[in-house]
Amino acid sequence: MAGQFISGCKLEEHEKDQLRESNDKNKYYQDRIFWHQLIETQNFTKSFGLHLKKNSILIPKEIRDKFLCIEKAIWSALYEQQNNRGFGLNEWSAHDSFFNEGPPLIDSLESFIEKRLSDLSHLESD
Fold this sequence. Notes:
Elements: H1 2-8, H2 13-21, H3 25-54, H4 61-87, H5 93-125
Helix pairs in contact: 2-3, 3-4, 4-5
């Protein structure tokens, strides 16, 4: 069962070999998978930011500003977690800020977009 899990996980082959040989497989896996997930999330966030920048001229300022706030909050939380893990720190302010302020910001963004779409559909039907 463990061999099947190791074979299918997202670690590099040399990491899988080290995991198989590790005395504390759980700790080794958690330490390594963190970095894979961090890089994957950073890549997604970079893609999001590039898409936003490339299309910013087409996005109304109110919407663009909310997306930029979300992007900034994501990067802050990612950098904080990277530093926590890399330097043995225990900072959580950006993480907490993202999880406290992010959902209301996303909700307001969704409401704003829904209202704009509704307004546009009313204009088209007139």
